[in-house]
Amino acid sequence: MSSHATIQASALIQDRLFIGGDMVEPESDDLLEVISPATEEQIGSAPSATPADVARAVRAARAAFDNGPWPRMSPQERADALEPFADHLRSRVPQIAGLITEEMGSPISFSHQLQAPVPVMLLDYFRGLAATFPFEQDRAGLTGTSRILREPVGVVGQIVPWNAPLILTMVNLAPALIAGCTVVLKPAPETPLDAYVLAEAAMEALLPPGVLNIVPADRANSEALVRHPQVDKISFTGSSAVGRRVAALCGEQFKRVTLECGGKSPAIILEDADLDSVVPALMPYAIMMSGQHCLAQTRILAPRSRYRQVVDAVSQAAAALTVGDPHDPATEVGPLVAERQRRRVEDYIASGRQEGAVITVGGGRPSRLAKGWYVEPTIFADVESRMRIAQDEIFGPVLVVIPFDDDNDAVRIANDSKYGLSGSVWSNDQDRALRIARRVRTGGLTINGYRIEFGAPFGGYKESGIGREFGPEGLSSFTEYKTINLPNGTAHGQPG
């Protein structure tokens, strides 16, 4: 039986929006059609929220924040209230994995490993953080004692992308709820269906009405959420181009904003690295989700003395990847999310050829797959850092290998990017790798591997975003500071 056979038909066809704690009728009959990237056929649909629907959701969130119990509960009470929410998601992991694979073509093995369980891990992490986060703290100052409060920022509008929809939802939804905020969630039009699992979880957990609202919408109607004057903060994950527009709109209203945007991350392989261990460890994260993730290590920087060795090793690894049906557990590279995405990737491949780079593997569509928006894993050699394929976020299974002369040259090339989100350094000399990592202008790196740590801040430099997610810093971004200066003579200490 295929993995998607366990998905109930009702999960694929949605006709309501989740507003104010109930499933309600939308204002229009407009639909978001969900198309399978593997078959190019419609598999489901969801309502396309109008600006009036968005406004209704914001009113529900505003009422829940201004008058409801959620912001007035203690952080631990909110964490406890979210326990059945987490348990519902935990019980649905296999179904969630299959649903996300249906929606956006994530290989089912990856969906089972990360797409479905990581949202639960994130929620559990932030629920645990509620007990230790300094929501109130007394501080001795120059003139007396002050009580520093961390209060919820208010109504949060959350806009999430299609590539890791529930992970990237929970990255900000969990800390927002723990902080005491209320949320209007706008899923991506390509992947609206998995968000309804959150609506089920909210109803099962008996969250107060309006604490979580879910309004799928197309890009044109998403702006209504950003512009709404009763939204206090926008949390956006997506492209840098759209992030720039979101930031501009938020700036007009002094609206708080967190942006997690694009990347073109370097993997710096030093000459002493063992390629037999480096390449197998690197490749899964370079072409994970067909390269459709902002952290993809898509710029491989190789020492000129070993350049051909690196190109050959990476090319052989790419050629060995299994491309095919995302529902097949053996598949390592599935389709791209949409036809427009495949056209974009193919345009970049053509650009690389025109600029003089050489394709060593791939470059086309898999001949045996007549249906589906597939692109072969593609490796470019003889790449210069100025080329478009080395500068732009392609968001597909395309890697470039760039030579460098020495450590200074490697750092120069790594920093020759408008992005600064992730990266890695590979060497047998950990101290040397750490020295290089310190010099790369990026929000996070891993030495001799690839890892995201939920307890540490995550985010980017330059056009990769504004603000940080994960860890206490991620929770902090959903709070505002308030200082209460206590009467003179008040003893300094932690508030009771």
TrEMBL record:
SUPFAM superfamilies: ALDH-like (SSF53720). It comes from the Bacteria. Residues 25-484 form the Aldehyde dehydrogenase domain. InterPro entries: Ald_DH/histidinol_DH, Ald_DH_C, Ald_DH_CS_GLU, Ald_DH_N, Aldehyde_DH_dom. It holds the Pfam family Aldedh. GO terms for molecular function: oxidoreductase activity, acting on the aldehyde or oxo group of donors, NAD or NADP as acceptor. The active site is at E260. Keywords: Oxidoreductase. PANTHER family: ALDEHYDE DEHYDROGENASE, ALDEHYDE DEHYDROGENASE-RELATED. Belongs to the aldehyde dehydrogenase family. This is Putative aldehyde dehydrogenase.
